[in-house]
Specification:
Elements lengths: L1 H36 L9 H45 L2 E4 L2 E2 L2 E13 L5 H11 L4 E8 L4 E7 L2 H5 L3 E7 L5 E10 L10 E2 L4 H9 L10 E11 L2 E4 L7 H7 L8 H15 L5 E3 L2 E9 L8
Parallel strand pairs: 3-12, 8-9
Antiparallel strand pairs: 1-10, 2-3, 3-6, 4-5, 4-7, 7-9, 9-10, 11-12
Length: about 300
């Protein structure tokens, strides 16, 4: 009986040993496979692999930093444009988008003669100046006030102004907002601009000179007769809807003049606007309409 139980015991032990060997074998095999396919640790990598990983990590950090900087710059630009828009709305600045033609902004200029009773206007003085100095050119120009650069200049005939004619101007699309001026002036050269020319003074002396034949000794032949401050941004032109004679209002416009020499630009624009006192142009559907007053012929001022 004891021998029988002893035999059973050895059989069980034998079976368990076999199973343990199988389990042990599976464990050893798994360990070997794990060691074979286990990723290399940082210390086990080759030097060139470490360098490549560090370089890749640096690139990722650089890209992340660059994205953050671009996002911050974009946000600042959007915030600045938002504040600028609010300020333009507060000041009543009118804005109109103009079409692109051949990569340039196409600005339609329409002249609108307007009668006024027994009072001389810009059109009268321009006509008299050209009659006394027939060699002079009449120019319409658009100029960058910050850089003092002519963006567009074209000779026009007096008949174009009198008949309500048009001029199609074209200017380069700016990368950032520009403070510009729209001019009408007389000049000895058709290639010149109007910025540096003296300003006409529509006062009693000029009226007297007009009625007496415009003495060449008192008034220089080349003069600015019309000026309008404008802002050019992307494809949009912006027009302050006022005669710009109010110093307080004009000072508020300085914030829209993003030039290093803001003070000089603002001073020039204010003095020129105040001296000439031209009506601001109408802006609508890709056109700027320039009003040019003149005396109603039924009123004889020379009497």
């Amino acid at each position: 009986m004891a021998d029988h139980f002893l035999g059973i015991y050895f059989n069980v032990v034998s079976i368990m040993a076999s199973r343990n060997l199988i389990v042990l074998g599976i464990a050893v095999l798994g360990f070997l496979l794990l060691m074979k396919f286990k990723p290399l640790t940082e210390q086990g990598k080759k030097p060139e692999q470490n360098l490549a990983l560090k370089a890749a990590s640096g690139d990722i950090q650089a890209i992340s930093k660059q994205d953050h900087q671009e996002f911050s710059q974009r946000k600042k630009r959007i915030d600045r444009l938002r504040e600028q828009y609010k300020e333009e709305q507060r000041l009543g600045v009118l804005s109109e988008e103009f079409p692109l033609e051949n990569g340039k902004i196409s600005v339609g200029l329409r002249f609108k003669p307007e009668k006024q009773w027994c009072q001389l206007g810009e059109l009268d003085f321009i006509a008299k100046r050209l009659s006394v100095y027939p060699q002079l050119k009449l120019l319409v120009s658009i100029e960058d006030l910050g850089e003092r650069k002519v963006l567009f200049s074209q000779e026009v005939g007096l008949d174009v102004l009198r008949s309500g004619g048009i001029v199609k101007a074209s200017v380069e699309q700016p990368e950032k907002q520009k403070t510009i001026g729209l001019y009408l002036c007389t000049s000895r050269s058709s290639r010149a601009g109007c910025y540096s020319k003296s300003k006409a003074k529509y006062d009693e002396n000029m009226t007297k000179d007009y009625l007496q034949g415009l003495s060449s000794k008192r008034i220089p032949p080349s003069q600015v007769f019309f000026f309008q401050l404008l802002f050019l941004q992307n494809q949009s032109l912006k027009v302050p809807p006022t005669l710009l004679k109010d110093r307080k209002y004009f000072n508020s416009l300085k914030g829209l003049m993003n030039h290093d020499n803001n003070r000089n630009v603002a001073k020039y624009a204010f003095n020129t606007s105040k001296s000439l006192g031209n009506f601001p142009p109408e802006i609508r559907k890709g056109w700027l309409t320039v009003k040019l007053p003149y005396n109603d012929p039924r009123c004889n001022l020379s009497r």
